[in-house]
Design a protein that fits this description.
Layout lengths: L8 H19 L3 H18 L6 H10 L4 H8 L4 H19 L3 H11 L11 H17 L9 H8 L3 H19 L1
Helix pairs in contact: 1-2, 1-3, 2-3, 2-7, 3-6, 3-7, 4-5, 5-6, 7-9, 8-9
Protein backbone atom coordinates (compact mmCIF):
# COMPACT_ATOMS: atom_id res chain seq x y z
CA UNK A 1 0.00 0.00 0.00
CA UNK A 2 1.33 3.43 -0.94
CA UNK A 3 0.43 6.14 1.51
CA UNK A 4 -0.57 8.78 -0.97
CA UNK A 5 -3.10 11.56 -1.14
CA UNK A 6 -5.78 9.90 1.00
CA UNK A 7 -5.03 11.01 4.54
CA UNK A 8 -7.25 8.73 6.54
CA UNK A 9 -6.69 8.67 10.30
CA UNK A 10 -6.05 4.93 10.01
CA UNK A 11 -3.25 5.53 7.47
CA UNK A 12 -1.69 8.20 9.66
CA UNK A 13 -1.88 6.01 12.76
CA UNK A 14 -0.47 3.02 10.90
CA UNK A 15 2.41 5.02 9.46
CA UNK A 16 3.20 6.63 12.81
CA UNK A 17 3.22 3.25 14.54
CA UNK A 18 5.54 1.81 11.90
CA UNK A 19 7.88 4.80 12.06
CA UNK A 20 7.97 4.83 15.86
CA UNK A 21 8.90 1.14 15.92
CA UNK A 22 11.67 1.77 13.38
CA UNK A 23 12.90 4.90 15.17
CA UNK A 24 13.11 2.98 18.44
CA UNK A 25 14.96 0.16 16.71
CA UNK A 26 17.48 2.62 15.23
CA UNK A 27 18.00 4.41 18.57
CA UNK A 28 18.22 1.14 20.51
CA UNK A 29 18.78 1.82 24.20
CA UNK A 30 19.15 5.59 23.68
CA UNK A 31 16.07 6.55 25.68
CA UNK A 32 16.93 10.25 25.64
CA UNK A 33 16.70 10.39 21.85
CA UNK A 34 13.54 8.29 21.80
CA UNK A 35 11.87 10.59 24.35
CA UNK A 36 13.00 13.61 22.34
CA UNK A 37 11.48 12.31 19.09
CA UNK A 38 8.21 11.42 20.83
CA UNK A 39 8.15 14.85 22.49
CA UNK A 40 8.57 16.54 19.11
CA UNK A 41 5.74 14.36 17.78
CA UNK A 42 3.53 15.43 20.70
CA UNK A 43 4.16 19.16 20.23
CA UNK A 44 3.85 18.76 16.44
CA UNK A 45 0.40 17.26 16.84
CA UNK A 46 -0.64 20.16 19.09
CA UNK A 47 0.58 22.72 16.55
CA UNK A 48 -0.74 20.73 13.59
CA UNK A 49 -4.32 21.09 14.82
CA UNK A 50 -4.05 24.83 14.08
CA UNK A 51 -2.50 24.66 10.61
CA UNK A 52 -3.24 23.36 7.15
CA UNK A 53 0.03 21.39 7.09
CA UNK A 54 0.02 17.82 5.78
CA UNK A 55 -0.33 15.61 8.90
CA UNK A 56 1.47 12.66 7.30
CA UNK A 57 4.53 14.77 6.44
CA UNK A 58 4.57 16.49 9.84
CA UNK A 59 4.24 13.30 11.87
CA UNK A 60 6.82 11.41 9.81
CA UNK A 61 9.28 14.31 10.04
CA UNK A 62 8.68 14.66 13.78
CA UNK A 63 9.43 10.99 14.42
CA UNK A 64 12.48 10.84 12.13
CA UNK A 65 13.94 14.37 12.37
CA UNK A 66 17.01 13.24 14.38
CA UNK A 67 17.31 9.75 12.87
CA UNK A 68 20.83 10.49 11.56
CA UNK A 69 22.30 11.36 14.96
CA UNK A 70 23.94 7.99 15.68
CA UNK A 71 25.42 7.83 12.18
CA UNK A 72 26.73 11.39 12.62
CA UNK A 73 28.35 10.41 15.90
CA UNK A 74 29.89 7.34 14.27
CA UNK A 75 31.18 9.13 11.15
CA UNK A 76 32.13 12.54 12.55
CA UNK A 77 32.45 11.92 16.28
CA UNK A 78 29.78 14.59 16.75
CA UNK A 79 26.02 14.90 17.09
CA UNK A 80 26.13 18.45 15.70
CA UNK A 81 23.08 19.48 13.71
CA UNK A 82 25.02 19.97 10.50
CA UNK A 83 26.04 16.30 10.55
CA UNK A 84 22.54 15.10 11.44
CA UNK A 85 21.26 17.06 8.44
CA UNK A 86 23.69 15.16 6.19
CA UNK A 87 23.18 11.68 7.61
CA UNK A 88 19.47 11.80 8.44
CA UNK A 89 17.80 12.08 5.02
CA UNK A 90 19.23 8.89 3.46
CA UNK A 91 18.31 6.88 6.56
CA UNK A 92 14.83 8.40 6.69
CA UNK A 93 14.31 7.79 2.97
CA UNK A 94 14.97 4.07 3.42
CA UNK A 95 12.58 3.86 6.37
CA UNK A 96 9.86 5.82 4.56
CA UNK A 97 10.21 3.73 1.39
CA UNK A 98 9.85 0.56 3.44
CA UNK A 99 6.78 2.04 5.15
CA UNK A 100 5.21 2.77 1.73
CA UNK A 101 5.14 6.56 1.78
CA UNK A 102 4.64 8.20 -1.62
CA UNK A 103 7.70 9.79 -3.23
CA UNK A 104 6.54 13.42 -3.02
CA UNK A 105 5.83 13.29 0.69
CA UNK A 106 8.96 11.26 1.34
CA UNK A 107 11.13 13.89 -0.32
CA UNK A 108 9.38 16.64 1.66
CA UNK A 109 10.10 14.79 4.92
CA UNK A 110 13.73 14.31 3.88
CA UNK A 111 14.04 18.00 2.97
CA UNK A 112 12.74 18.95 6.42
CA UNK A 113 15.23 16.61 8.10
CA UNK A 114 18.03 18.06 5.94
CA UNK A 115 17.29 21.58 7.18
CA UNK A 116 15.77 21.22 10.65
CA UNK A 117 18.75 22.66 12.52
CA UNK A 118 19.61 25.52 10.19
CA UNK A 119 16.42 26.62 8.40
CA UNK A 120 18.56 27.80 5.49
CA UNK A 121 16.50 26.60 2.55
CA UNK A 122 13.23 25.15 3.82
CA UNK A 123 10.14 27.15 4.76
CA UNK A 124 7.06 25.02 4.18
CA UNK A 125 4.23 24.99 6.69
CA UNK A 126 5.23 21.44 7.63
CA UNK A 127 8.81 22.56 8.26
CA UNK A 128 7.64 25.42 10.50
CA UNK A 129 5.62 22.97 12.63
CA UNK A 130 8.69 20.73 13.10
CA UNK A 131 10.94 23.72 13.77
CA UNK A 132 8.66 24.95 16.55
CA UNK A 133 8.01 21.52 18.06
CA UNK A 134 11.75 20.73 18.19
CA UNK A 135 12.47 24.06 19.86
CA UNK A 136 9.67 23.54 22.38
CA UNK A 137 11.13 20.19 23.41
CA UNK A 138 14.69 21.53 23.48
CA UNK A 139 13.76 24.64 25.44
CA UNK A 140 11.11 23.45 27.85
CA UNK A 141 11.25 19.67 28.18
CA UNK A 142 14.96 18.90 28.05
CA UNK A 143 16.22 22.00 29.86
CA UNK A 144 13.59 22.87 32.50
CA UNK A 145 16.24 24.58 34.64
CA UNK A 146 17.09 27.05 31.87
CA UNK A 147 16.63 30.72 32.68
CA UNK A 148 13.44 32.39 31.52
CA UNK A 149 15.02 35.82 31.66
CA UNK A 150 14.72 37.57 28.29
CA UNK A 151 13.27 34.45 26.64
CA UNK A 152 9.79 35.91 26.31
CA UNK A 153 10.98 38.63 23.97
CA UNK A 154 12.75 36.03 21.82
CA UNK A 155 9.63 33.90 21.27
CA UNK A 156 8.41 35.82 18.17
CA UNK A 157 11.91 35.62 16.70
CA UNK A 158 12.50 31.93 17.43
CA UNK A 159 9.11 30.35 16.76
CA UNK A 160 7.70 30.30 13.25
CA UNK A 161 4.01 29.51 13.87
CA UNK A 162 1.47 31.37 15.99
CA UNK A 163 0.55 28.07 17.66
CA UNK A 164 4.22 27.44 18.47
CA UNK A 165 4.53 30.93 19.93
CA UNK A 166 1.43 30.42 22.08
CA UNK A 167 2.71 27.07 23.32
CA UNK A 168 6.06 28.67 24.14
CA UNK A 169 4.33 31.43 26.14
CA UNK A 170 2.27 28.79 27.94
CA UNK A 171 5.35 26.66 28.71
CA UNK A 172 7.18 29.75 29.94
CA UNK A 173 4.29 30.65 32.26
CA UNK A 174 4.24 27.08 33.61
CA UNK A 175 7.98 27.22 34.22
CA UNK A 176 7.59 30.47 36.17
CA UNK A 177 4.76 29.05 38.28
CA UNK A 178 6.76 25.89 39.02
CA UNK A 179 9.74 27.94 40.15
CA UNK A 180 7.58 30.05 42.47
CA UNK A 181 6.22 27.05 44.31
Amino acid sequence: MVLGSANSPVEEESLCSTLIVEMKRMFGSDQRRIRHALGVLDFSERILDRTTADPLVVKAAAILHDIGIHEAEKKYGSAAGKYQQIEGPPIARGILQSAGMDAERMEHVCDIIADHHSAKSMDSEEFRVIWDADRLVNEFVETPEKSTKNFERLIPKVFKTSAGQELAHHQLACRRITRQS
